[in-house]
Structures are given as structure tokens and as C-alpha cells.
Amino acid sequence: MAGAWMARVRSAAGAAAARWRRMTRGQRIAAGAAAVFAVAAIAAGLTFALLPRGEGDDCDEPLCVEIIGPVGDKVDPMTPVRIRLAGDIDRKAAAKALTISNEPAGERRFQKDVLAFYPEWPGFARGETYEISLQLPATAVPEGAQPVDLDFQFTTDGRLEVSSVFPADGAAEVALDAPLMVQFNRSVAPLTVIDARGPEGVVEFDPPVEGEGRWLNTSLYQFTPSGVGWAPSTTYTATVKAGLANQLGARLHEDYATTFTTALPRVVIFFPLAGSLYVEPEPEIKIGFNQPVDRASAEAAFTLRPSGAGPVAGAFEWLDDQTFLFHPAQPLALATAYDALVGAGVRALGADAVTADAVAWSFTTVGVPRVESTDPAQGSASADRYGVEITFTNPMDEESVEDRVTITPEPEQEPYMGWDYESRILFIGVEFEPSSPYRVTIAPGAVDRYGTPLEGGLGVPAARG
Fold it and tell me: End-to-end distance of the chain based on CA atoms, in angstroms?
């Protein structure tokens, strides 16, 4: 019976207090009598009233009780707990009877007829729900008043939460050396640990992984895996455990979990590039993977062959566990297309993951260097008076060509020479006399960029008009 009565009292108190806080001063005065009557009716004639009344309002009962606050779910952590007890009560007993869940350091005291609890800085923990209870026995209340049994709660502002993570939840093909970064919505680490190892247990991993964690700032935590990094083709679950708290008492209430999957091994670099022309006969063929791989399986997966012919013999040179060079045993044939292939199935180093797809590409070797064309053309009788352009079949050694170019008769001003970006087209800036014959010659000894001599040289007679 008593329990049911107290439930009615607490329900009435909460509803009445909420209505009272929404009223203006005039509305409170007008509604005061009705509120007293309503609570008294619920209390079935009991001799204390739970009233939504402002401090200093008259109280006609032996004991009037008012929950002033705080209430709600975004309470400032320094807000005091205040309960009005208007009547002749035992104040020491009342102060002792006030209980606060997870009570912080603070002070209880009466201000007139208001029992208050003032928390010390930094106040109540942030983002926490607090249960407030006041139970006054009959011996502590005025004669004729009933015992007091009040309960209410509030939640402080500032719950600690994870704002974002990198890699994002569900991310795939994560690099093995990528760090995990956790951004919180407020400061967690004190300034004294910035750039130092973060506290143990900030993040847990399944499967476990060794590494180092540190705070990049007071709210951004970074974990970097050690050694070769994350295991390839592995799904990790990273969990920030509930209970993590900052110095102001903000606490992570629930575990925060995110998953990501690391990258399969794959080819990320190959040279010469696909479609390359003018590749030298003794090229540096380079293959790079996105992670360390098993060398034997990588070498077995690689082939180089002229189109439609058998594989080229050669030797492998590893720059590290991710990159190798292939050196053909003999110079490659000139002006020939070659097909390169890294087959599927190259194993990650120390793991079961393998490359899923083959990578194939082609390139063409350089031919014998020749003059492809000239402007003006051989024998032209109506050429422009300004400039000569010579196009070669190969990229040339520019200095070896320029040193062997002669123009006869010699122009009055020294010619200017320039090249296109491939070193295949030579531009000769020169002014010729009108209606005069000239010959442009490249003497023997000019070579392409790989040292192959220019075949045929050049002797271009041209009449200028």
C-alpha cells in the first residue's frame, strides 16, 4: 500500500514540476491552488504537499516539498541539486538522507528552506545519468506530516562518443601500413600525453595485432601496426571499449566497433609502361607490388616474350620484398613488340593471400635510328626562308646530332637548335637568303639515346625561294 502511494506521489511530482516550469509567474499564482488540490487529492488527505512552487511562496501544509532541479538530459555538470523543504524539519537528518548515485566531491547545505548539493569542479561527470533520492523518516518531519520519499534523475551534457574512424567502417583494400585513427567528440587525453604513447587499452583488435598508439591531439588517437603492418587480406574488428573516460568525467558508455579488410597482394608498378615505344634493347624491367610477396612465387609468375614466340631468359634482382628487376640474358630484338605478364597466384609474404588477377602489358623496342622526314623536303625548290625541321625514327642523343649538323653555304647568323620532348624532332632556327640553294648535312657519328649510330646520315639540298 505504501509503495503504491509513493509511486503516485512521484508520478504527480514529476508531472506537476514539469508543468510548473513551463508557466509564467502569473500563471503559477493562478494555478497554485489547483496544483495544491491535485497533489493533496492524490496523496489522499496526507499532511504534506509536493508542490511545484517557486522559492518564497507560501506553504499552508506542515511540510511542502519542491523538486527545484536539475532535470533533463543536457544538464550543465556544475548545476547544483536543489530540493525545497518548507517546514519544521530536522535539517541534519535531511542533508544526510539526500543520496546521489556516483556522487562527486561537493558540499550539502541549506539556503533558507532549500536543501542543496553543490559539486566541486569539474562537477558531475559528463554524459552520465544521476539518480537523486531523499528519504526522510517520520522522526525528521513536522508533527502531522508524512515521511518523505522522493526520487528523480537527470543526465549531464557532454557524453563522450567516437565521432569518426579511419579506415571507415566496412572499408576494403586497406593498405598494410595504414594507421587506424579514432576521432572523439571531445578531449580525452590530457595535454601531458600528447606525442607520447597513448594509454593502454584504447583500442582492441580481433585478430590481435602489435603496434603503437599515440595521441595526435587531445581528441585524436592513432594506432600504427608494427613490422610489416596488418596481415594481408584479413578482416579486422577494432573496438574502443566502453568505460574510456577523460579527466572531466566524460565516459564512453558503449563499446564502439568498426571493421575493415586489408588489401590483397597486387601489382601496382610495372615498367616499361604499357604501350611504350622506343624501349632500349637492354631495358630495366621493373615490377612492384603493394606489399611484401614471396619471391619464388613472383618469379614463377613472370614471363617476357616477343609476340608469338617463346619466353625470354633472364635474371631477377630484388630491390626489396615488394620490388624486383628482370634483366634479359641477351639484348632484346630491335623494333619488336614484347608481351610481359605477371600471372595470378603470387603469394603474400608469410600469409596465405595471393594475387587474384593477372597483369599483362606490351611494349615495343627501339629500331635502328634513321631520318624519317625533313621540312623542307629533299630537293624542295619553293621552301620557306626560315627554319629546318628534321624528324628521326628514334629518340636521339641531342648533343651528338647537333655537333654534326652543318649548313652550306654557312648562314650569316649562327643557327638556333631545339628539340621536342621525345628528342625525335630537331628544330633548326635559321634565316636563308632568298632564291639560294642550301644543303643541310648530319655527319657520321650521331647516335640515338641508347648509343646506336644513325643509319644513312643526312644530306638535304634545298633551294630557298
Answer: 124
Residues pairing with 224 in the sheet:
212
Non-local (6+) Cβ contacts of 297 within 8 A are: 345, 346, 347, 354
DSSP E strand boundaries for 332-455:
337-342, 359-365, 371-375, 386-392, 405-408, 416-419, 425-431, 436-442
- pLDDT given at position 460: 57
Measured between alpha carbons, how far is 242 from 231 in angstroms, rounded to an integer? Answer: 26
Strand partners, 439: 408, 461
At residue 161, the pLDDT reads 86
* Ranges of the chain with pLDDT below 70: 1-59, 191-201, 248-249, 459-465
What would the grid cell of residue 58 be?
507560501
Helix (H) or strand (E) holding 5: helix 2-22
**Helix or strand holding residue 41 (H, E):** helix 25-42
What is the C-alpha separation between 79 and 118, in angstroms, rounded?
A: 7
Strands 359-365 and 276-279: parallel
- What's residue 18's pLDDT? 42
Q: CB within 8 A of 186, min separation 6: which ones?
A: 126, 158, 160, 219, 246, 250
- Put the strands of the sheet holding 337-342 in their side by side order: 276-279, 359-365, 337-342, 302-306
Q: How far apart are CA 188 and CA 432, in angstroms?
A: 79
Separation of alpha carbons 346 and 384, rounded Å: 60
Number of C-beta neighbours around residue 58 at 10 A: 8
348, three cell numbers: 603474400
pLDDT of residue 201: 64
Side by side, the strands of the sheet bearing 106-111 are: 49-50, 63-69, 81-87, 114-119, 106-111
Exposure string of 224-248, with b = 16+ CB inside 10 Å and e = fewer, is ebeebbbbbbbebebebeeebbbeb
